[in-house]
Amino acid sequence: MARLTSEVRSVLDGSFPAVWVRGEISNLAQPASGHIYFTLKDEGAQIRCAMFRSKRVLLAFRPGNGQQVLVRARVTLYEARGDLQLAVDHMEPGGEGALRLAFERLKQRLAAEGLFDESLKRSLPPFPRQVGLVTSPTGAAVRDLLAVFRRRFAALPLLIYPAQVQGEAAPASLIAALALANARAECDLLILARGGGSLEDLAAFNDEGLARAIRASAIPVVSGVGHETDLTIADLAADRRAPTPSAAAELVAPSAEHLTQRVAALALRLSDAQRRRLTAERRRAEALARHLALLHPSARLQQQAQRLDHVQQRLTFLLSERVARGRARLHPLISALHAASPERRLSQIEMRLDILARRLAYAGERMLHVRGDRLGRLVAGLEARSPLATLARGYAIVTRSDDGRILRDATDAVPGTRIEVRLAEGVLTAVVEPGTGHAGSAGSSEASGRRSGRRPKSSDRGSGD
Q: Which DSSP letter does residue 410 get?
């Protein structure tokens, strides 16, 4: 007999998965061991049940005779008496248990369809233009939502789509409100909200049609239903779930204080960046100005003029020194002549001396004249080679504005090329235009400009160096 009952038990344990059974408790026994034993019956049958202490301590209510319950159990056999019984793992009151069972079944079916896949969830706009509230206009949830929005971002427009949130007509009312919000397309974010309640109170948010309407919505949906421990099908289908209506508002509404602080910080960073950029550009401009001053022709002319002054001073010194040496050699000769010359040759010597003195003076003057002429020719040649002298005679230096290359041929500047014309005083900026009768040729453009006597516009005039 023991072997038979053991074999039957092994067959039962391996053939039946966990089952959900609803019935009325009777013959409830609660021994000191902590286990409970009872009979679960309905109108057509009854079966013995055992719930062991490890499972009983998890019960959220105290079971009693005559109470309708829903249990999840394993079918087994009590070998000592050969009785068929249920080993109960979970038990809950019958009314809520039915809703819970229906919730689990719907949840599993919709999850199998992929309705809750994270890949379907859409991201929420960081700064919504207008938010729609799908809720009861008279409930506590809408007051909580408005209070949070007023505190965090009072300027955010809100639009309420009234709907029933409890009762048999609530699912259809919620679906209609979602459809209206999508049809009017006035908001870029919707909040589906309701305050807390029992599982029966939240039954409208466990409706399959509502879940499918949430997923079909073209506008992202945030759910804020019940309390933090409540979980509904609408929460699973929504693009983002908040534990409460207030939390949904916190999630959606940007913080005005945070935005103000961030804008102030960004403005400070922008100001600092502009200040650093201006400083760097000012230093760069100063360096370029110094470099330009070193390369300017006037600097070279100043150096040449200084060199010319130095040569002139040296020439004057050399001439003076040579005259001084000649006079130094003449004085001893005159003294010797006076000492050695007889009286009768005095006049001849004086005459000769006078002639030599005149010749010496003439030679000095001639030498000064020759050296002065040579110096004048050198100065004239230096001035003739100076770019500024050429510009002063009416000539100009024409360069391309983009690369600074000097233009020597009109064909190097096609129509539309921006050029700079350096005169003796100032710089002109101009644009090459097509020449009359020779369109498309840079040379003809320049010739046309000379024939027509075109004067540069005021916008083409540059500033002088």
A: G
